[in-house]
Amino acid sequence: MNTLEIELVDQKALKLLQDMEELNLIRVVRKKSGMAALRKKIQTQMSEAEINNQLGNIRDEWTRDIS
Q1: Is the dihedral of CA 48, 51, 55, 56 positive or negative?
Q2: Exposure pattern of 16-41 as b/e (b: 16+ CB <10 Å)?
Q3: Are 23 and 15 in contact (CB under 8 A)?
């Protein structure tokens, strides 16, 4: 058995993979992305202060939405 990592470019590909899984041709194994993998996807590096500021803004938005 070979294991491949595939990056989906179009959502139609996901449907094809699911169909192949239903036919028992493949098994789809979903991996959880770790923080290191997510960091590699970031286009620009942020300082700790920028991250804290952005998190504060998000928390403020959530608080307003709940109220």
Answers
A1: positive
A2: eeeeeeeeeeeeeeeeeeeeeeeeee
A3: no
Q: Where are the alpha helices (DSSP H) in 1-67?
A: 11-22, 35-41, 48-66
Per the CB < 8 A criterion, the answer to whether 34 and 40 are in contact is no
Give the whole-angstrom CA distance, residue 33 versus residue 8: 15
pLDDT at 28: 87
Residue type, 47: S
Residue 67's pLDDT is: 60
pLDDT tens-digit map of 1-55 = 788 888 899 989 999 999 999 999 999 887 776 777 777 777 777 888 988 999 9
